[in-house]
From TrEMBL:
Name of the featured protein: Diguanylate cyclase (GGDEF domain) with PAS/PAC sensor
Matching SUPFAM superfamilies: Nucleotide cyclase
Coiled-coil segments on the chain, per record: none
Residues of the GGDEF domain: 173-303
Keyword hit for Transmembrane helix: yes
Domain of life: Bacteria
Single GO MF descriptor: diguanylate cyclase activity
Pfam families in the record: GGDEF
Amino acid sequence: MSIDHALNVFFGSALVIILIFAEGIRKHSGNHVQKKLFCTMLIITFAMLTFDFIISLLSENRIREIFHGNVVFLIIDCLPFLLAICVIITFRGMFKENTFIMAVFLALFSVSLFIDIMIGSIKLIWPFIAALLLYTYFFIIQSETKIDSLTGLENRYSFNEFTSMLSHNKTGESWIIVMIDIDRFKSINDNYGHLEGDKALRDVASVIKSSLRKSDFAVRYGGDEFVLAVKAEDGVDDLMTKIINELVVLNKRNKKPYYLEISYGFDIFTADGSRPIEEFLNHIDELMYKHKEERRRAGDIKK
């Protein structure tokens, strides 16, 4: 590889990686495990790119001659391709949501691999890896807009996307939509402060999250309201019983001066275009408040 070509590949790819890293450190504040993993991947990529660049500059050097044909040098040449595969495997979840993008990246990967093997010393793999990391970063940022920062559940925007898809596709699928409201939440805020109110929201969200099955979908709808979407064939009775029982256990363990309890309403929504989703949500919201009022009259809501 000529020095000019090596410089173009190195500085072009390195600049993209550095900008992604800087922007990620400055803005990315969602899933901390994912952030740490992604930043570690960027650092490893930059280190490998720098190492590969140095090796390329030594292409006419005695060092290159010593390692040429050696297993060690073969491994060094294969490192960028192994790195690209690691990135795809590590963040495979995002590609499952967009099979077209996955097909494009696999095609680019195959072409760059073929050219680098057949021609040699072109190193098209590095711009490919930089583009792959850039797309991964865009996906992480986009996914963060769908997550409620306080509870870690998906947010109303994500739920609107879900219901919009149901309404427009008209697949005929049936879902049980559950509207959940925390009892006496205003009292918790008024008497113990908003920080304690936030803690209560996180506790309820944690119970909901731990109770979900793989096919269930849960969001923080707003304020102290949560929404669950459950496939009709799976039923909702066992799930709600589990959530209520887990809240009882939580109340005993926490020993707070208040009880975390919920009221809820639900019904079946069929995605056949027969009923506007907005009207249906108002309907289950009314069912939820009806359930809360019934529990209040029966004295089931503790202070």
